[in-house]
């Protein structure tokens, strides 16, 4: 009988939490929805949309403040245990026991779920085969790569066949290859076992594979429907335009994004700019804006519809979490010009931790004024490379020059010429904005009235509130403060470590708008990211995998090297990594 | 010269940041003053070896005028309090085991007879030896009461001892303990503060941001050590004021020398704390290590038990313990009025510990990898 019922029915569900500033905020604010059994359903939305809160309430791990919630026909308020007996839930960070082997983890979860011994062997064999972990059954879970851990987490979740499977952002922080594998496993399970699956994600391509999509933002449901139905919302508004020769796509993209009354959203893609125009935008003004470059229609994608929905939702009230982008003339460039030649010079860089080689024989240059991107999955060695460039980690061997200074001999002098923005907010949370900037000004050797002047200047440029306590700032402003601190001493090079992880798409646009402005002012920018599409903002990119540098060049060159001209950066990345891994495999067989 | 000023200005910026960060948190502000205040009051009243009350039991089998007189003398001291009057010897074990009394006085049946015939009259005293310190003190009291009893009976002792204790005329153990608390109480917090200073930044990710600035490890070290030392000396000052003005223990020595000693001692403590901090990857580790060292530091400092009584190997090991020399310094300067020449030897191990641990911490800043 359960087959006939809806698997999830939610009515007017609310959940409030206390924010960091002590003010309560609604993580889930009056959501009503129904999910049909036997379907693959996606919750998409930026971070803070309420996806995880919703998932945890459906799994009975969190008590709603108000509203009703039925899962598999059972009221969760009355009998959460009955629901939990029939569902499987995989949280964002699955609780693997890092010291136990792959097999022991599986055994443990089978014991916890009371899976009978006779079913186990067949089930394990199938899961290990699907996840391609059969070779690693003796390896401790802690020694697996990020992607493999996630697959093992999925396998442990599926030691029994649930009536409903909840996956909370299963692909977060996972490299594109593992992400693809993970989805193949999920789709195969649905086909073979007729599972009902609810998955939350920030990736639109993943949402596009689902039967039904719910778009969430800041605790409310913006839209729902099949991917095709949602996509059609952007119908007729999507265009692409090619910038004139010699103009970076990101400059044109920046201009488009600065005109929000004409353009909803714009991103650089494959040397062109993809944009969504406002439904009632003025034709002639749009033409002026494009400075006679001829826009062409392009087919709408789910991403376009999603951006349109987010903009429509965020537009009416001033969104405090996403700061407005900075215009180029506002941003100070480096203090003085410092001649020509590469500003970063890396030759045969190696870093070993014990017998593990995190970075192997890496060589590259970064030219002055470039935006240089280091791309790769987690564990590819990009953070290690990055930390060596910033002087946070000594190299095992190789040559490393930053801003014309050898990092091995004159680290303090090199550090004075670079700015660094960490992935996690790394300023002092209990100090005010002014106190933080004042301290870093002092640490960089600015004194007296010069320091006060510079701090005031940068507070104005970045539109910050000097008396606000840093730890309570919204995420977008925190990042802005971190960038202000990194730029206080007018460095030649700005290093940004995963600046866009964990921030929503609108904030990401604003962030890149600021980077474009910095680049126009002559600052060299080195940035790491695991969002492949962000490579399009860079002048040149380097792709790393398992410590090795696989490709380097302009985004177009890298795409051509992959043999997939015009494709998505994600696919180009997968092609390059697969080719390199195959070659390595052949070399190993030959040896 | 310009570069020296620039160098110092950077350190000052770091010190200022540390102090602002410390004072901004209301919980921190309380911790800076509260524990030192409360603990010094607490220990001043509670931590004492002086035996003010001795509950005892009596088994008087003599039932004579002489035995009554002897017992009246005991009761008359105000220290001995009769908790039980026993009727046979079998009851003694019971009252002592229970902990109701600290000792039992047993007067034999022939007590009066022996006294009358001028023979020796033994009185048995059974002590609870589970706490040897109090048992010893109680035995001492009863000896002096017995001596008084003998004197009154005209049984003159051939030798009499006249005691005169220097530096602490009444041998008040509060005098012995409280000046040492000036060093001991501040040590836990100084260690903890220093141990958390880098570990907190590592845990919250701010340490990387600090390391990418042109600040050298030495500058970071000084910038972080100075606020910790200042806090340590401030706490010592709070305890000092309480010792001097609340408990009214007179200070014999020079205040300057006293503070010189405190700075030396706090510097060495901060050195150990910073090394712990640079070695730890997070705050939990830092706290664990701190509590691991604080206990042996306190017990093996000579605060309660003299270092001279320890096995030789341990005595040598205590040279690494700043508290040993800190306690010695403050006690001698405070109670005895020792001059710089008298306590100079205490500074040597303190300076050596600081000179080893501080550079070690600075080196670890960059070489301890997560």
TrEMBL record, chain A:
Q: Domain (ABC transporter): give its ranges.
A: 8-243, 344-571
| GO terms, molecular function | ATP binding
PROSITE patterns tied to this protein: ABC_TRANSPORTER_1 (PS00211), ABC_TRANSPORTER_2 (PS50893)
Q: Which InterPro entries match?
A: AAA+_ATPase (IPR003593), ABC_transporter-like_ATP-bd (IPR003439), ABC_transporter-like_CS (IPR017871), P-loop_NTPase (IPR027417)
Question: Where does the secretion signal sit in this chain?
Answer: none
Superkingdom per UniProt: Bacteria
Instruction: Tell me the segments the record calls region Disordered.
Output: 315-335
Query: Which keywords has UniProt assigned to this entry?
Result: ATP-binding, Nucleotide-binding
Name of the protein described by the UniProt record: ABC transporter ATP-binding protein
Q: Which species does the entry assign this protein to? A: Novosphingobium indicum
Q: What is this organism's lineage?
A: Bacteria, Pseudomonadati, Pseudomonadota, Alphaproteobacteria, Sphingomonadales
TrEMBL record, chain B:
Does the keyword field hold Membrane? Answer: yes
What is the phylogenetic placement of the source species in the record?
Bacteria, Pseudomonadati, Pseudomonadota, Alphaproteobacteria, Sphingomonadales
Kindly list the residue ranges recorded as spanning the membrane: 177-199, 220-247, 253-274, 286-304, 347-365
The UniProt family comment states: Belongs to the ABC-2 integral membrane protein family.
What Pfam families would the database entry show? ABC2_membrane_3
Query: What is this protein's record name?
Result: Transport permease protein
Tell me the ranges covered by the ABC transmembrane type-2 domain, including all copies. 139-368
Protein keywords: Cell membrane, Membrane, Transmembrane, Transmembrane helix, Transport
Major place of localization? membrane
